[in-house]
Amino acid sequence: MPLRPSVSDDVTALPRGGQNAIGVALGLLGDEWTLLVLRHALSGTRLYGDWMRAMPISHAVLAGRLGRLTQFGLLERVVYSQRPERFEYRLTRRGRGVWPILLGIWSWELTHVERHAEELPRMGHRGHAFEPVLVCGGCAAPVRPRDLVGGFGPSGTWARSMPSATTRRRSAAAPGHQDGFFPQTTALVGNRWSCAMLGAAFQGARRFGDFERHLSAPPVVVADRLRTFAELDVVTASANGGYRLTPKGLAFFPVAVHTMEWAQRWFRSPEGPALAYRHTACGAPFHPRYSCSGCGEQLRGSAVQRLDQ
Ligand SMILES: [Zn+2]
Ligand SMILES: [Zn+2]
């Protein structure tokens, strides 16, 4: 029995002139605890106590993240026992819809990050090993960043795409190191500045001043994040004094475009999209999909499972 009507199947209307879908999504998902909570939810976790046992997380932080995910319509708090009254958190359609983002993170960590504190789960498509291949939803051809043209749409400005600081800075030990699922991803997108910086890099920001100006970021923050990105081999200094994404950085593209796709599916500004891209080869508006590297079939979340469970 739901405590309140589900908001999950309706698109959330954002205020005119306010933060757009990108800003909302980065503010929500650009948080390492939120990604970890969602990762476990997608593996079937529904009970508060099960998240507590699965992660080195405090009660205050877990309660806060579950509350936000419920507020944003990714989880639904449902009574599953009347006496005593007990709740569980179920993923809504909107919540299940983040699977391509998490799958992209898993694949990137598996391919590009050598060491993990614990082994990454083995994933399979219909029982066979696979990698997700980013393809165009219109023509099914594989897509790389240079195959797309476009940029900001009617609600897209740098200012409106900035995530707001809604979660407090974490002070406990870094879960990325203990959990071992995505240690480098958390350094890349685990907080709002990193997220916005990486987004700006994919949007073409190349120079220190680009990041500073587009994001209205303090220079010390820009310098700190660029140093971290360089240490992770995600960006490299180029000969003309700028920065460019390395092959490892470009390989994070599927995560970025699936995040944008999810954001714009569920959050809409009245002016229109924040970002609009076309696939040059087929001319269609770009909607990302994954195909299976093993059998070529288009991936659906329900057909991707852990192989070792
Ligand atoms: Zn296409
Ligand atoms: Zn397959």
Question: Could you characterize the architecture of this molecule?
Answer:
It is a single chain. This protein has 309 residues and is of the alpha+beta class. The protein has a domain at 97-168 and 178-306: Arc Repressor Mutant, subunit A (Orthogonal Bundle), CATH 1.10.10.10. The chain is built from 13 helices and 13 strands.
Core attributes:
binds zinc ion, Arc Repressor Mutant, subunit A, globular, three-stranded antiparallel beta sheet, 13 helices, 309 residues, alpha+beta, two-stranded parallel sheet
Q: Largest beta sheet, briefly?
A: 3 strands, antiparallel
CATH architectural grouping of one domain: Orthogonal Bundle
List the helices and strands in order.
Answer: EHHHHEEHHEEEEHHHHHEEHHEEEE
Distance between the termini: 30 Å
Overall pLDDT confidence: 88
Tell how many strands the DSSP assignment holds.
13
Which strand order do you get reading across the main beta sheet? 5-4-13
